Amino acid sequence: MPKSTSQRQLSTADERRRTVLQTAVSAFADRGYFGTRTADVAQRAGISQAYVYRLFPDKEALFVAVVEHCFARIRESLGDGAAAAKGSSAQEVLDAMGNAYAELISDRDLLLLQLHAQCAAAAEPAVREVVRSGYARLVEYVRGTSGAPEADVQRFFAVGMLCHLVVALDAHEVDAPWARTLSDGLRHY
């Protein structure tokens, strides 16, 4: 018997897991690790809280998976930037990766999730570990791909952190000396 087009298609656990991860990014971006309940994520994903727990054993495991997901997006973005570099000098590669990252953090959910992860890392060992390992992978990728000296790699990440602050505060839209000082020379999307 042919399937009716109105019949509901069942998703696989992997598809549901991806949906929950993507939904959880915005849920955790809104309220952070400590302010978000698994019930909030379940409601946004249109599934039961019990199903969230079938996919992830607890909120910490879900948050850790969301942070890993975001680090994977960052790495992919940096790779796309490196591939689009106009030349092969270390600075040209860093500039292209920086531009790709600036575009990526225009996704406010991803930006806020990163900020919340860094805050939660101060108090939660499992979150601290996933943030540490995420940055370790990114630093090694940027160093290896760009061939830049340590000081330039450090500056690349420092400017990225400054971009977080400027974008989170919308400082680039404030007409004041402090905001111009922080925003000068940074790309915004």
From TrEMBL:
SUPFAM superfamilies given in the database record:
Homeodomain-like (SSF46689)
| UniProt-listed Gene3D superfamilies | Homeodomain-like, Tetracycline Repressor, domain 2
Keyword DNA-binding in the entry? The reply is: yes
Q: Which UniProt keywords apply?
A: DNA-binding
Q: Which residues bind DNA?
A: 37-56
Q: Does the keyword Endoplasmic reticulum apply?
A: no
Q: Where is the HTH tetR-type domain?
A: 14-74
**Domain of life according to the entry:** Bacteria
User: Which PANTHER family does this chain map to?
Assistant: HTH-TYPE TRANSCRIPTIONAL DUAL REGULATOR CECR (PTHR30055:SF146), HTH-TYPE TRANSCRIPTIONAL REGULATOR RUTR (PTHR30055)
What protein name applies here? Answer: TetR/AcrR family transcriptional regulator
